[in-house]
Each structure stands twice: as structure tokens, then as C-alpha cells.
Amino acid sequence: MIRVKDGDSLVVDSNGNEVDVRLADIDAPEYNQPRGDEAHAALRSLVAEKDVRLDLIGGDAYRRIVARVHVGDVDVNAELVSRGLAWVRRAYDPAQELVAAEEEARANQRGLWADEDPVPPWIWRKTKQTDGSRKLGVIPEVECGTKRTCTQMATCEEAIAFLRQCKLTRIDGDGDGIPCEKLCRYYR
Predict the structure, then answer these.
(1) Among this protein's residues, is 30 annotated catalytic?
(2) Is 64 an annotated catalytic residue?
(3) Which range marks the domain in which residue 60 is found?
(4) What is the pLDDT of residues 50-91, one digit of tens each?
(5) Which residues of the chain have pLDDT under 50?
(6) Which of 3, 18, 22, 49 is catalytic?
(7) Cβ pair 186, 156 in contact under 8 A
(8) How many Cβ atoms from other residues are within 10 Å of residue 69's Cβ?
């Protein structure tokens, strides 16, 4: 391993070449997001100055290798999720052990699950400015109890507001933090 870039990507040495690696099926908080620094530090502590083994999944649009990362017997991807320092990306049909690790971390309020209102990075990137502040008008204030189903929502932002502010979890069928899958498909 050469260096850790953030909470879910690193650079490894492969036969003298630097190779960018994205941890498969997970998404850690961004640097300017709550717990972003903690996720980065955790990944660094798991892989720093250690030999890593990559179980290749494929590549991504940024020309990175997408892989499950292992150090000895430790599945680094699962370990970050288990510590509550990464979300599972259900859109990519993740391994069941990752989903189970996230559910356990959530139930035990580990890491980001101890926070009042954790926001998945894929939503954070759409609704936050680089300084970490909310963009005005993106996520509206809503009156809880006035809407209960996705068909009643006018926008994805409204659905996110009902999910986060009113804890209307029924509109997030797969539990990935993105409500009303058809309405919010561009948040994937």
C-alpha cells in the first residue's frame, strides 16, 4: 500500500506501478462531511505499511480498480462498515455480509450511526457545498404527517426531507438512505 486517499480509496503499488483502488460496495463520508476524517484515519490504520490483497470486482468511471480489500484475514471494506464509518451501496448489489455489518453497526449506534442525522455521501455530494454548509432551498422544512407515501412527494428533495426530518422510513424500502427510489434515481 502506498497511501490512503480518503475513507474509501487508496493507492497501491502493483509491480512498481501506482494503482488507484476504490473499495467496492461501500461509500465513506467525504472529507468535509461529519466523520470524514475519522473514516480516512480508520482506513489508514487498517492498511498503512501492510500488504493488501485485492479481490477485483471491476473498474469505475474514474479509471480506478474497484475491489474488496483484505489485510491478512481482515476484510477492510466490511470492517469500515462494521465500525460505522461507511455506508453500504445497495445500488451495486453488495455482498450480504456487508449489509449485515451495516445493520449491526446501525443497531449498536457505532460511528456515524451514533449521529443524530447521518447523511449518506451520495446525498451529501448533491446537497452540500464544499464548505459543508447546506445549499439554500435544497432540502425543505416539512410538516410531518402531511405526506406518507412516495406518490405524494413532489420532488426528491421533499422525500429526503420527510425521511430525515420525520423519520418516515417506509419511503426508503431498501434502507440505503435514499427515499422513493424512482423519484430519487439521479441520487445514485
Answers:
(1) yes
(2) yes
(3) 3-114
(4) 999 999 999 888 889 999 999 999 999 999 999 999 999 887
(5) 129-137
(6) 22
(7) yes
(8) 27
